[in-house]
Amino acid sequence: MKHPTPPIPQPRTQQARMHVKQAANVLELLEYFARRRRPATLAEMSDDLGWPRSSTFNLIGTLADKGFLYEPRVRGGYYPTPRWLALVQSIADAEPLPEAVHQLAAEIAGETGETTAVAAPAGTYSIFIHVVESSHAIRYITRVGDRIPLYASSVGRAILAQYSSSEREALYRRMEFERFSETTYTSIDAVEAELRRATERGYHQSNAEFQPDLAGVSLPLPIGQRRLSIVVAGPVSRCLGRRPETAAIIQRGIRRFADALNLRSCS
């Protein structure tokens, strides 16, 4: 009797890559529904996301079985269930931003007229965790969850400034220092030099380093043990020449909310 050939075990690294890809697909699917804002069939998801039909079927089936996707109408496609919101809300409630941070960002946005955001470190990136958009028709548009490399913007460098030299060195070893524009700092020495200039200046600034035609001003926002930063950004034509004035507005706002924010020294 001929015995079936046992499956060949996949190398551990190959299995790890597959698992990481599956995790990335789940996140990509959520972003897809956030853009689409209506149910999608398996065929639509496969075509729109460029996934094989079999992989799409397996992923959607798993998420539906776990209660994360449902069919609002029979054969009308799938849509995320409120279970996602409940999980995210539970996570956010465990470590919410102080209400004073929301008030600070709103006041600064109102006084400057520009988009104001609060960022936190996420590996070698800064990630926006609170955003107040400008009311101008032409403005800096960003969303909670958007990421920017720490080295490539004032908001990231205001976070880097809160790390020790040895901590920054460890982060630098993981960075690729990609050039996004002619003004991007693309070496450790260049970033460190700009951090020193920011210390002398009293604030961090940027000029179209990561996004074209965007100027920004940032300051550290060290709340308790959290290394956050706050940034005001907008079109170069409107904001570049106002950076010192914008920095003064942010500094005054931080001083007003210092007690409520439980700020610690960055030194």
Summarize the helices and strands and which ones pair or pack.
Layout: H1 12-36, H2 42-49, H3 53-65, E1 69-70, E2 79-80, H4 83-94, H5 99-112, E3 115-122, E4 125-132, E5 147-149, H6 154-160, H7 165-172, H8 188-201, E6 204-207, E7 214-223, E8 226-235, H9 236-239, H10 243-256, H11 258-261
Antiparallel strand pairs: 1-2, 3-4, 3-8, 4-5, 6-7, 7-8
Domain IclR-ED: 83-267
Domain HTH iclR-type: 20-82
GO molecular function, one term: DNA-binding transcription factor activity
Defining traits:
two-stranded antiparallel ribbon, Beta-Lactamase, 267 residues, transcription regulation, Arc Repressor Mutant, subunit A, DNA binding, globular, disordered N terminus, 46% helix, DNA-binding transcription factor activity, DNA-binding, alpha+beta, transcription, 2 domains, six-stranded antiparallel β-sheet
Number of strands: 8
Oligomer: single chain
Give the structural class. Answer: alpha+beta
Q: Round the mean pLDDT to the nearest integer and report it.
A: 89
- Please mark out the parts with pLDDT under 50 across 5 or more consecutive residues, or reply none: 1-16
Cα Rg: 23 Å
CATH topology of the largest domain: Beta-Lactamase
CATH A-level architecture of the largest domain? 2-Layer Sandwich
CATH superfamily of the largest domain: GAF domain
Number of helices: 11
Task: Report the principal-axis shape.
Answer: globular
Q: What is the string of SSEs from the N terminus onward?
A: HHHEEHHEEEHHHEEEHHH
The number of distinct structural domains comes to 2
Tell me the name of the CATH class of the largest domain: Alpha Beta
Distance between the termini: 76 Å
Q: How can the largest sheet be summarized?
A: 6 strands, antiparallel
Helix content: 40-55%
The strands making up the biggest β-sheet line up spatially as 5-4-3-8-7-6
Protein name: Transcriptional regulator, IclR family
GO molecular function: DNA binding; DNA-binding transcription factor activity
Pfam families: HTH_IclR (PF09339), IclR_C (PF01614)
Keywords: DNA-binding, Transcription, Transcription regulation
